[in-house]
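Person: I keep going back and forth on a fold encoding question. Show me how you would write down a chain together with its backbone fold. Please set it down just below, with no commentary around it:
Helper:
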Amino acid sequence: MTLTYVRIPVELLALKIERTQLIILALALAFGNEGLRLSNNELSRLLKVKRRNIIRAINGLREDGHLNGESVSGQNRQLVVSG
C-alpha cells in the first residue's frame, strides 16, 4: 500500500479550532476545488470521533466562515474551504 500524506498549512495551526475541526479543514483543503465528499458516518469512522462531534465540528467551521458545504446525495455532502 502506498501512503499519501495530507499537508497541513502552518496557517491552519494558528487558527483557534479544535483537533477534529483542524483535521476536517485539512482534508477539505487536500481535495481542493473537488471538495471533501464524505458522510458524517464516514468521517466519524475515519477519524474515530462520535458522529455528533463531526456535525458540531462542521457546523462550527461553517459558522466561522472556514467551510462551505452543500448536500451532494443522501448523507454525502461536499465540503470546500472558503476562499
